[in-house]
Every structure is written in structure tokens, then in C-alpha cells.
Amino acid sequence: MSNLNVSKKPAGPETADRSEGAAAGLQSALRHRELGDHAGETRAIAAAVQVFEDGLMRLAAGATGARPSQLAADEATGLLAGIAGQTSLMALRAAIEAARDGGEGRSFAAAAAEVRDLAGQMARATETIVAQVGLIQAAAERAQGASVRENRRAEQISAA
């Protein structure tokens, strides 16, 4: 038959201690694995928050970097408004000169009227540009403010 030597003694306290030790070791290993899983998840969350913060910083830098362009646009619209005003003044002077010349200044008066019309068109275009630049500036300021707020939130999340 078999050469297997089987003891018919009941399991003693040593076997129970070994079983409890094995169960405790298994529970400890499972806890360590769970902690390792949580640590991995925490690292993944921290990495995602860092990517988010980096994006917010780039957004804030872009909004801040747009400021010189906004100032240049303000300067350009001011220049256009000045040119429109000077052109209108020139048209007025030309109309006065044409009136002094009487009938002989009719062609001059027609040219003055065209210049005055162009000055009006330029003034309206300048007003439109100024309004659009104002809208762009307001949007950039809102974006920068939102970026700062979101960056603070990300810092709070990182600190937690």
C-alpha cells in the first residue's frame, strides 16, 4: 500500500498557533498591498494635480503676457482717434477756404467734403476698434482672475 505515515493525533496548539500566524501574516500582506494601492493612487492624483497646476500657470503667464499687446492696442487706437480728429479738422479748414473762394472753390469744396466723410468713417472705425479691444481686455482680465483662483484651489488640493 502506501508508505505514507499519517498520525492520528488531533491537531495541537502548535498547529493552531501556526494557522493564526499564517492568517495574521496574510492580513498584514493584504493591508500592505492595500496601502501600496492607495499610495499609487495618491501619486497618480498628485501627478494629475501637478499637471493641472502647470496648465494654470501657463494660462496665467499667457494672460499676463497679453498685457503688453493690450497696451500696444490701446496706443494704436489712440493714434487712430488722433488721426481721425486731425483729418476732420483739415476737412473743416478746407471747407472754410472753399467758401472764401466762392464759385472758384467748388472742386476744393467737394474734396473737403470727401475728406470730412473719410474722417467720419475713420472715427467710427476707431470707436469700433476701441470697443473690441475693451472686450478683449475684459476677457483677458477675467481669464487671468479665473486662473489665479483655480491656481489657489489647486494649491489647496495639493496641500491637503
Report on this model:
There is one protein chain. The chain is mainly alpha-helical and 160 residues long. It has one domain. It is 89% helix and 0% strand. It has two helices and no strands. The longest helix has 89 residues, at 13-101. The two termini are 69 Å apart.
Helix-strand pattern: HH
| Structural shape | rod-shaped
Biggest sheet layout: none
Low-confidence stretches: none
The fraction of residues in strands falls at under 5%
CA gyration radius, whole angstroms: 41 Å
How many helices does DSSP assign? 2
Overall number of structural domains: 1
Short structural summary:
The chain is an all-alpha fold. The chain is 89% helix and 0% strand.
Give the helix/strand layout:
Blueprint: H1 13-101, H2 106-159
Helix pairs in contact: 1-2
List keywords for this structure.
single chain; 160 residues; mainly alpha; 89% helix; rod-shaped
